[in-house]
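Researcher: I'm preparing a figure for a lab meeting and need a structural model of a single chain. I don't have an experimental structure, so a prediction will have to do for now. The sequence is pasted below. Please return the structure as tokens so I can convert it later.
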Amino acid sequence: MVSDDLKPLRIGLTGGIGSGKSTVAAMLVDCGAVLVDTDAIAHALTAPGGAALPALSREFGPDIIGADGAMDRARMRSLAFGDALARRRLEAILHPMIGDEAQRQAGLAGGRTVVFDVPLLSASSPWRQRVERLLVVDCAEDTQVQRVTLRSGWSADQVQRVMSQQTPRGARRAIADAVIFNDGVALDGLQAQVQALWQHWSGLPRGRAMGL
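Model: Understood. Here is the structure written out token by token.
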């Protein structure tokens, strides 16, 4: 049996839309981590030829597949955000497939630290039990709206609708082992926070974490 000290550290990374989570993920990779991006996995599953498409077509009808052969994301977003049952039906298809692929990718990391980028990680999520450390990237809600409208062209109302479906800020912070507040922070300052946390966690024994 491999001792806990020799197993790769598993970090869960989460944060609301526009928080800068992807930037932090890239910085952790620069520190030496292997990134498992569950959102990227979901996109691959629903791209042309994706493994989830047959089940999605059966569940939601063939119109959920666009002319390009991928899931019609705009249509699915409208369904999922407007109907809690539709969202649960979508999650029942995608979440197990995402979990299996994420674990497969993590298994290829060798002894390197694995960072699971999970946008919807909450206290009740199975991911909370799969990771030893949970890092939350946080910022003010007004900052989230501003960042997403600038980069995507969405209206503020669209962004706020997405935010309303995500775990609330307070709930995310309450379950975190560490929080990086990414608001009014220059890129080099953010990087310094990430590197300090990496060094701290790399020196801790495996197992459930104590926050900084």
